C-alpha cells in the first residue's frame, strides 16, 4: 500500500468516526489531566452530568460560561487552588451551602499540569454497556468496506 493510500484510509476512518460521534459521545466522560481540552461547565468530567446542569444557578452567574477547566485552577504551594469566577457575589445570591457542595466536588479531582486530559468510557450498568458495545460495532461495520 502506498503512503498516499494509507493517508486516504486514515481520512476515511476519521470521517466514519465523526459520523457516529453524536451517538458515541454520550458513552464517554473526561478524565482530568491538565484541563486544556475540557470545558469546565459543559463537559462531564465529575460524573455523568456537566456542572452547568448540576449547579445551574452558579453557571448562570459564571463570568465565563465557556471557560476551559485549565483556567479555573492552578497549582499552589499546598496543592490545587480553585479560581472559578462569577459576575457578582454569587455566594450572597445562591447561599453558602451550594458553594460548599461545589468545592467538595472540585477538591475530589486532582488535576495535573504534567498529564493530558483523556476520554474514558462511562461507568454504567451491564445493559448500558451492551447497548454501547452494539452502538460502537454498528458504527465500525462501515470500516470493513475500506480494507
Automatic annotation (TrEMBL):
Protein name listed in UniProt: Reverse transcriptase zinc-binding domain-containing protein
PANTHER family associated with the record: OS04G0516500 PROTEIN, PROTEIN, PUTATIVE-RELATED
Lineage: Eukaryota, Viridiplantae, Streptophyta, Embryophyta, Tracheophyta
Organism expressing this protein natively: Punica granatum (Pomegranate)
Source taxon at top rank: Eukaryota
